[in-house]
């Protein structure tokens, strides 16, 4: 099937088997291998990308469902130099093996927007925002991204530092 | 030339006097930017032109495999081959095996064994065809449950533990169980294989290339010299990538059969089954003590399992042998041959579950006697290794316990359980000692120093541990170069053989090889400076001797200087007992209504000789503590009682700690140099953090609410059952 969409601000077209997931389209067809496949079942978050600004598990979505969508992957978070969030991950050692990292970065980017837009989470005291990026909110909202290296302290420190500057997302 | 060192005795401290000031600092990972921008290339990422895609197929039962519809599957669109080759491996090789694991596809020894590979033009076609392949097995039931079979081996006995128990005023005799656990690195096992003539290259996710090369060659029946392995970035290992695994062997066979590159990535559920698990354990703990808590007897007997044909036996008690002094001892393992998926090394094999249960038992004893748990440990620290009578290279347990207790605020603790309540929640604290044997292996490394800087090469891997960072620091320190002037190249068997990552030995072993390579270059630079190597100061690309100062570039005169280092363990590892030590402290909240446990804070104080990079070492310890939380509260494989298969074989059903499960973690390193551990005086840190961490949590649960959970993990149902008593 034919598919036209935007990936990292660039228009792309693919003639693609309808069984191909968005993740595999990015990795194997567009060679954007930053997004990782940790489970292929929506259980780990390594494949998280932004679709029209929202974070999703790209392994759970078929590529052909994304006609006209705007996709941003980890490769699109930076323009040449690492973004402030990416730099903060390096500074705070928010990764070890680095395999969950692209997903953490895309997820954090989407998460910060969600909280800014007043989306509640399981950790929120009520359903009416606004919400602050407390540790409980951050941890809850980032718990769909597993890190077996267990870099949560560094991930959280990097996100908080970046959110504090206000201009990184 | 090569600078060889067999570590037979103590080394002299050198790095302290060096001028660059890079070693031990919290240097950011040099591979960091590649990892945060998605540019680091992992095993499955780089797909060559013309690549085909393979999918492994699992045995649904035991015994002879019968394929119902191979021809139909071969005829499916895009399918290239259905391969069932005798060289395919039953399970991943054990760490440092250096030879093929058990091979064959005719018959399955465990449910989930890979017995076929379907190859197709696309991943989607291969997956579809693999699902369509009908396999039948005719094997009858085989023993899969602990207790079903006779055991192999007996614990070591010293003195008379039964008599010591009978005489002691305080005695404890309890049995704990721990379930099978899994490494579950976030990167599933993956391989891309291609042949050029009779030469094979495989890009794969592996921890120990020099062994893996031999394992792959042996599996295929070819000369290891014809095999090149690439693993520059590895998405976590934790023991699961120590040995060559099913996907790499299958990919190599398929690439040869088809004459084109083949990629095989294990499905996450296959990773659970085909890669070695941490064995379940049953552990009987016996402790005999006098009124002051001094131990007269210590017993830790463990029952563990593995598949027939596997040499690995979970070394549950290896640290118990030297942890505490007691004259009367029964310590060791018994092995049961069960047809569950193969068992092998998972982060800190032995101590992860062994020290944890020992430390739970110590807590029970302290409680029975009515003395402080920290004090009980302090009273039982042996002067020499209780088994061999040899001295310890260093013994930092007392300092770790005292420093850790101070950092945590342990002195405020109520002596009795159930002393603190906040609404529905019981609050309590617990602690544990940490022990992990220190091991050195053999490694080589090469450094090329040119006017542009230094290039370090070894087939060592960085599985997240920080190898790129620490080797940069070691070479930079010894050669007087800032980090930007050092390039570290890893994960390619064309480089000198490193130690591989595993057993916490990677940093010290391969690090010392790099150190030696640098010493060889230093000696030559000193010769050119016409001074002794000891008087040579190297800093920021400049050599100084007395009042003579020359830029390195001038000294090199446009040429490249090579150093080659080779290190191996010698008598220093038998003359003295080498171990790392630590102390864990945890605070938990236990919900009186639901039995839910939340860890509120954790602190770990560790001694592992010189800390090579403060930042990456800390991250390793965060990992250890977090794995301890998982082990204590949520992690465990469930084996089907009928056929032993892993029921919860995915990341939704096997519960590792997530962000919200992990509280603020305090990690502190004690300043230490261990001269017996080689010239860098550094010991392994990657596994120490998990050793005993779960015990601190479990002991805190008891202190909070009075419930002693002896069957791990302490899930709400188990805690609640105790609360209701
Ligand atoms: S790969 Fe998509 S959630 Fe794991
Ligand atoms: S950095 Fe390894 S899984 Fe997160």
Automatic annotation (TrEMBL), chain A:
Q: Which InterPro entries match?
A: 2Fe-2S-bd, 2Fe-2S-bd_dom_sf, 2Fe-2S_ferredoxin-like_sf, 2Fe-2S_ferredoxin-type, 2Fe2S_fd_BS, Aldehyde_Oxdr_Iron-Sulfur, Beta-grasp_dom_sf
Domain 2Fe-2S ferredoxin-type stretches: 1-77
Pfam families in the record: Fer2, Fer2_2
Q: Name one GO molecular function term.
A: metal ion binding
Keyword annotations = 2Fe-2S, Iron, Iron-sulfur, Metal-binding, Oxidoreductase
Keyword check for Metal-binding, yes or no. yes
Q: What is this protein called?
A: (2Fe-2S)-binding protein
Q: Which organism is it from?
A: Roseivivax isoporae LMG 25204
TrEMBL record, chain B:
SUPFAM superfamilies according to UniProt = CO dehydrogenase molybdoprotein N-domain-like, Molybdenum cofactor-binding domain
**Taking every annotated instance into account, which residue ranges of this chain make up the domain Aldehyde oxidase/xanthine dehydrogenase a/b hammerhead?**
37-141
Q: Which domain of life is it from?
A: Bacteria
Under InterPro entries, the record lists: Ald_Oxase/Xan_DH_a/b (IPR000674), Ald_Oxase/Xan_DH_a/b_sf (IPR036856), Ald_Oxase/xanthine_DH-like (IPR016208), AldOxase/xan_DH_MoCoBD1 (IPR008274), AldOxase/xan_DH_MoCoBD2 (IPR046867), AldOxase/xan_DH_Mopterin-bd_sf (IPR037165)
List membrane-spanning regions.
none
- Ranges for the region named Disordered are 137-156
Question: Which Pfam families did the record assign?
Answer: Ald_Xan_dh_C (PF01315), MoCoBD_1 (PF02738), MoCoBD_2 (PF20256)
Q: Listed GO molecular functions?
A: iron ion binding; oxidoreductase activity
User: Which PANTHER family does the annotation name?
Assistant: ALDEHYDE OXIDOREDUCTASE MOLYBDENUM-BINDING SUBUNIT PAOC, XANTHINE DEHYDROGENASE
This protein is called Xanthine dehydrogenase
Q: Lineage of this protein's species?
A: Bacteria, Pseudomonadati, Pseudomonadota, Alphaproteobacteria, Rhodobacterales
